[in-house]
UniProtKB/TrEMBL annotation:
<dbReference type="GO" id="GO:0004497">
    <property type="term" value="F:monooxygenase activity"/>
</dbReference>
<keyword id="KW-0547">Nucleotide-binding</keyword>
<dbReference type="InterPro" id="IPR006905">
    <property type="entry name" value="Flavin_halogenase"/>
</dbReference>
<dbReference type="InterPro" id="IPR036188">
    <property type="entry name" value="FAD/NAD-bd_sf"/>
</dbReference>
<protein>
    <submittedName>
        <fullName>Tryptophan 7-halogenase</fullName>
    </submittedName>
</protein>
<feature type="binding site">
    <location>
        <position position="326"/>
    </location>
    <ligand>
        <name>FAD</name>
    </ligand>
</feature>
<feature type="binding site">
    <location>
        <position position="78"/>
    </location>
    <ligand>
        <name>7-chloro-L-tryptophan</name>
    </ligand>
</feature>
<feature type="active site">
    <location>
        <position position="78"/>
    </location>
</feature>
<feature type="binding site">
    <location>
        <begin position="13"/>
        <end position="16"/>
    </location>
    <ligand>
        <name>FAD</name>
    </ligand>
</feature>
<dbReference type="InterPro" id="IPR033856">
    <property type="entry name" value="Trp_halogen"/>
</dbReference>
<dbReference type="InterPro" id="IPR050816">
    <property type="entry name" value="Flavin-dep_Halogenase_NPB"/>
</dbReference>
<keyword id="KW-0285">Flavoprotein</keyword>
<feature type="binding site">
    <location>
        <position position="335"/>
    </location>
    <ligand>
        <name>L-tryptophan</name>
    </ligand>
</feature>
<feature type="binding site">
    <location>
        <position position="339"/>
    </location>
    <ligand>
        <name>FAD</name>
    </ligand>
</feature>
<dbReference type="Pfam" id="PF04820">
    <property type="entry name" value="Trp_halogenase"/>
</dbReference>
<dbReference type="GO" id="GO:0000166">
    <property type="term" value="F:nucleotide binding"/>
</dbReference>
<keyword id="KW-0274">FAD</keyword>
Length: 492
């Protein structure tokens, strides 16, 4: 399309739609005419309650006051995810948001820890991580200087409402109604959206936030979908909320079962529960019965079944349309990465916002960066499934034996041989995340870096115990997560 962009239309008002609207409104709202269309009749997917630390950046960019936000979304603090029964039945580890131990520029902390293990002087890897130990002790506080690295558990509908207010304050106009038709011009670009009542909403640039329907990017522009189900076989979720039965944990629980896993996400007043499973290995009735047998507390609403297909759109920006949120693809929620991907796409779109007409070079760059990001997250999630000792059910035997992407095979091999991990360019998960999950899932590197041998046995012992003591001493000073929440956002 040609000509400067003046009118932006955001189709969809779930988490993706309102995160997009709030950010565009804040940054470019003064010069653009922004409309968001959402349908009360269709509603939103209504899940997506666990986040990762990058959301703090998004909220800060928008100038959001954290305590007000936490009160509005019934939020709790999250220090990581506990993976139960993944490596094996009755095995548990935490992937925390913290940094474990202390790296040397030549070698990650795991190299020194492994040497310590060999000498019999090292505790569990996680004992050297402040966030992980705080999570286990259920403690939390904002610490001065280099504080705890954390994220949030939040009520996603309340978060969307919170962002809606910000967006509307910045001039975004909300239209309620069902989009019945997407019109294109002769060149093939989207020109307008027609609501069921006949209202025509014209635009120069469109953001598809219509969720799994992908009304604009998929249906109207015909952009295909790359299916990753052969690597990530789960394709159904059932979600149900319950009243809280105890103080909220400062971490998400991910508990593997015979054909997938289930989540437990603590908010201030309720708990989000759900089961993720592969319909090839478990039917819906079985899934529902299993979920209901596992949850605690009064059930607040009927369990909802959510079918999904793991994969990605073949392009995330096509012509004058960018897809953000579930319309752009979905990697299952094991590491709570979807809201992060929304945030990344919103920020990327703003960084590459058309300077005049839409440039093909921008489209190519946007798609290249998005794919890079997605493929690394995909590999990280596959790792949890593939690297298991479980052989107790057909589902786990499939995951253990399945073919995996070469990129992931290489990472696993490198770690197994040498204990090394590297963060590729700007990928989301840094070395420490890969290390925590590879160790947690049962790879013990065959050797350690020679720099660890430069230390004597006494030096290794002192080095490790110094970190351990620091972690324990700091955690002792922290209040309980529950008490901290009560003082920080008094509504809790
Ligand atoms: P939706 O919420 O589906 O919103 C779509 C919007 O489009 C709605 O407003 C709808 O009304 C509108 N719409 C659709 N069609 C039309 C039409 N014809 N006319 C008008 N409006 C229309 N993410 C995380 O980060 N952490 C998690 O813990 C997490 N857990 C998840 C668990 C499950 C089981 C699933 C499936 C997803 C999870 N996600 C999670 C992902 C997260 O839920 C989504 O990324 C997030 O909610 C964004 O969804 P969305 O806005 O793209 O789509």
């Amino acid at each position: 399309m040609s000509g400067a962009i003046r009118k932006i239309v955001i189709a969809g008002g779930g988490t993706a739609g309102w995160m997009t609207a709030a950010a565009i409104g804040k940054v470019l709202g003064a010069n653009l005419d922004i409309t968001l269309i959402e349908s009360d009749q269709i509603g939103t997917v209504g899940v997506g309650e666990a986040t990762i630390p990058t959301l703090l950046t998004y909220n800060r960019l928008l100038g959001i006051d954290e305590a007000k936000f936490m009160s509005a979304v019934g939020g709790t603090f999250k220090l990581g995810i506990a993976f139960e029964n993944w490596t094996d039945v009755d095995h548990r580890y935490i992937h925390s948001f913290g940094i474990t131990g202390k790296d040397h520029w030549t070698a990650g902390f795991q190299q020194f820890w492994r040497k310590g293990r060999e000498l019999g002087v090292a505790k569990e890897f996680g004992d050297y991580c402040l966030e992980l130990v705080a999570a286990e002790k259920r403690r939390f506080a904002h610490l001065p200087k280099l504080g705890l690295n954390y994220a949030y558990h939040l009520d996603s509908s309340a978060y969307a409402q919170f962002l809606r207010k910000m967006a509307e304050d910045n001039g975004v106009v909300r239209r309620e109604g069902k989009i019945g038709e997407v019109r294109k011009n002769e060149a093939g670009d989207i020109s307008s959206l027609i609501l069921d009542d006949g209202t025509v909403i014209e635009g120069d640039f469109f953001v598809d936030c219509t969720g799994f329907r992908a009304l604009l990017i998929g249906e109207a522009l015909g952009v295909g979908y790359e299916d990753w189900t052969h690597w990530l076989p789960c394709d159904r979720a059932i979600a149900v909320q319950t009243k809280s039965v105890g103080p909220p944990l400062p971490y998400t629980r991910s508990i593997a079962h015979s054909a997938g896993w289930r989540w437990q996400i603590p908010l201030q007043h309720r708990t989000g529960n759900g089961i993720v499973f592969s319909s090839q290995y478990m039917d819906e009735e079985e899934g529902r019965a299993f979920l209901l047998s596992q949850i605690e507390g009064e059930v607040l609403a009927e369990p909802r079944v959510i079918p999904f297909r793991t994969g990605t759109r073949s392009a995330h920006w096509e012509r004058n349309c960018v897809a953000i949120g579930l319309s752009s693809g979905f990697i299952e929620p094991l590491e709570s990465t979807s809201i992060h991907l929304i945030q990344r796409s919103v920020m990327r779109m703003l960084q590459m916002f058309p300077q005049g007409s839409v440039a093909n070079a921008d489209i190519d760059e946007f798609n290249k960066q998005t794919f890079f990001e997605l493929e690394h997250i995909r590999d990280f999630i596959i790792l949890h499934y593939h690297l298991t000792k479980r052989e107790d059910t057909p589902f786990w035997r499939y995951c253990r034996g399945m073919d995996i992407p070469d990129t992931l095979r290489h990472r696993m091999q490198l770690f197994r041989e040498t204990g090394r991990t590297f963060r590729a360019n700007d990928e989301l998960f840094a070395e420490n995340s890969w290390t925590q999950v590879m160790l947690g899932q049962g790879i013990m590197p065959k050797s350690h870096h020679p720099v660890a041998d430069v230390m004597s046995e006494g030096e290794v012992r002192n080095f490790l115990s110094h970190i351990d003591e620091n972690v324990r001493r700091t955690v002792e000073t922290l209040p309980s997560h529950e008490d901290y929440l009560k003082s920080y956002c008094p509504s809790s």
